[in-house]
Amino acid sequence: MDNKKFILSLKKGNEASFKEAYLNYYDKLINIARRFNFTVLTPQDFVQETFLRVYNKRELLNEEVLFDKQLFTICKNIIINHVNRENKIIQLDPAQFEMVQEDHDTGIFEERKEKLYNFINLLPEQQQKIFTLHKLENLSYKEIAAITDLSEKTIANHIYLASKFIRKKIEDH
């Protein structure tokens, strides 16, 4: 089946076409998602979310564009959004996130992640602990306050100072 017919079939909700897409692209998407080190979700979660998005937004598929390109773009956007939520300090440049340059991109991401952790290690111990709990483990100010016996205002101040310090370090490098 050619690309246009395949996408039109998907847009109509054809079950056999979705099954074909799933079987043909599952492994490729898993390999893309495996390149990233997520603290909460697994590569399978991203692939599942990608196929759910394709199904739920199938009417937006463009039959003039190759299906695999659209699928990889959806997966890429889901991963970028998650990484940005998980590590609010690391801003991935979508232009550097080409699916074809797998090894190169993983290197860039790992390098940035390593720099971030090095900068976090330069923070005073209390700031380091609070920043890590909030930015990397996604705990709320309230949850951190309960753990540390500090006020939410103090927590906010520590996070502000740590973020400011790390942003400055990132700009300097």
Automatic annotation (TrEMBL):
Give the GO molecular function terms.
DNA binding; sigma factor activity
Q: Which terms are listed as keywords in the entry?
A: DNA-binding, Sigma factor, Transcription, Transcription regulation
Kindly indicate whether the keyword Transcription belongs to this entry: yes
The parts of the chain that form a coiled coil are none
Q: Which domain of life is it from?
A: Bacteria
Q: Residues in domain RNA polymerase sigma factor 70 region 4 type?
A: 114-164
* GO process terms (BP): DNA-templated transcription initiation
Question: Cross-referenced Pfam families, in alphabetical order?
Answer: Sigma70_r2, Sigma70_r4_2
Q: InterPro entries annotated for this entry?
A: RNA_pol_sigma-70-like, RNA_pol_sigma-70_dom, RNA_pol_sigma70_r2, RNA_pol_sigma70_r4_t2, RNA_pol_sigma_r2, RNA_pol_sigma_r3/r4-like, WH-like_DNA-bd_sf
Is-annotated flag, keyword Transcription? yes
Task: Please state every residue range assigned to the domain named RNA polymerase sigma-70 region.
Answer: 22-87
Q: Where are the transmembrane segments?
A: none
Q: NCBIfam families from the xrefs?
A: sigma70-ECF (TIGR02937)
| Family that this chain belongs to | Belongs to the sigma-70 factor family. ECF subfamily.
Spell out the protein name for this chain. RNA polymerase subunit sigma-24
* Source organism (scientific name): Flavobacterium araucananum
